[in-house]
TrEMBL record:
Its EC number is 4.3.99.3. One of its GO terms (molecular function) is S-adenosyl-L-methionine binding. The gene is queE. S-adenosyl-L-methionine binds at residues 47-49, 94, 135-137, 175-178. Belongs to the radical SAM superfamily. 7-carboxy-7-deazaguanine synthase family. The lineage of its organism: Bacteria, Pseudomonadati, Pseudomonadota, Gammaproteobacteria, Oceanospirillales. This is 7-carboxy-7-deazaguanine synthase. It catalyses: 6-carboxy-5,6,7,8-tetrahydropterin + H(+) = 7-carboxy-7-carbaguanine + NH4(+). Homodimer. Catalyzes the complex heterocyclic radical-mediated conversion of 6-carboxy-5,6,7,8-tetrahydropterin (CPH4) to 7-carboxy-7-deazaguanine (CDG), a step common to the biosynthetic pathways of all 7-deazapurine-containing compounds. Substrate binds at residues 11-13, 26, 92. Pathway: Purine metabolism; 7-cyano-7-deazaguanine biosynthesis.
Length: 215
């Protein structure tokens, strides 16, 4: 059984593959925050910009098996003549590695999809992921030390970028923290730009879907 908060067709907004047409599957639940505002200040991850509670979002629900969920997600990919475009699914959440398994990856591949994952890096991933994005959180122990992109939300007092520069990733991004979820305004853009200028291993990553006004 898989619990899905919402699923939708959009452009990947973040990281090295920003701009790519994607089906997003947002799983319910996370291991670093309950998702309830009253728990936010005491949680291990305190700046989350996402509602991942329940299954009541667009195209959300509970799916009995991998075949059922893969069929549901495949239907969200447009039936165009654009055969050059490989269908792309991004599993996120919440924390997708609480639910994503080999059966679901295999079922998506059978539908012709490339499979991407956005994870906090604290859980072991199943085999078969085509694009792995890891976004470390505070002092939560990092289990995944290699992948395609490391995308650190900046700044986090207990997760300075220097803690991660030795890891085995193809891309190192700093993503300015959006302060709105914590009742603030704007982002930490100025500080993030300054850090990238001083430390050229890191590249600036913007949440382009928020600029574009899409999901
Ligand atoms: C909502 S998380 C879900 C996936 C996974 N739990 C994780 O944390 O990577 C998706 C992405 O949004 C980023 N994110 C969450 N809150 C943010 C915020 N306030 N500002 C900028 N990025 C944020 C996360 O770091 C992660 O890269
Ligand atoms: N367009 C868009 N791109 C995204 N990239 C990562 C997201 C996420 O919430 O995991 C996200 C999202 O929520 N929307
Ligand atoms: S780990 Fe990801 S989903 Fe969980 S609270 Fe943090 S940003 Fe949100
Ligand atoms: Mg998001």
């Amino acid at each position: 059984m898989y619990s899905v908060k919402e699923a939708f067709y959009t452009l990947q907004g973040e990281g090295a593959r920003a701009g790519r047409a994607s089906v997003f599957c947002r799983f319910t639940g996370c291991n670093l925050w309950s998702g309830r505002e009253r728990d936010r200040a005491q949680s291990r991850c305190r700046f989350c910009d996402t509602d991942f509670v329940g299954t009541d979002g667009q195209n959300g629900g509970r799916f009995a098996d991998a075949h059922a969920l893969a069929t549901h997600l495949h239907r969200l990919w447009p039936g165009t003549d654009d055969t050059a475009a490989t269908p792309y699914v991004v599993f996120t959440g919440g924390e997708p590695l609480l639910q994503l398994d080999t059966a679901l990856i295999t079922a998506m591949r059978a539908h012709g999809f490339e499979v991407a994952v956005e994870t906090n890096g604290t859980l072991t991933p199943p085999d078969g992921i085509d694009w792995l994005c890891v976004s470390p959180k505070g002092d939560a122990p990092l289990r995944i030390t290699q992948g395609d992109e490391l995308k650190l939300v900046y700044p986090q007092d207990d997760a300075p970028p220097a803690n991660f520069t030795h890891l085995d990733f193809a891309h190192f991004f700093l993503q300015p923290m959006d302060l709105a979820p914590r009742g603030g305004q704007g982002t930490t853009m100025t500080d993030t730009v300054a850090y990238c200028l001083d430390h050229p291993q890191w590249r600036l990553a913007l949440q382009t879907h928020k600029i574009a006004g899409i999901d």
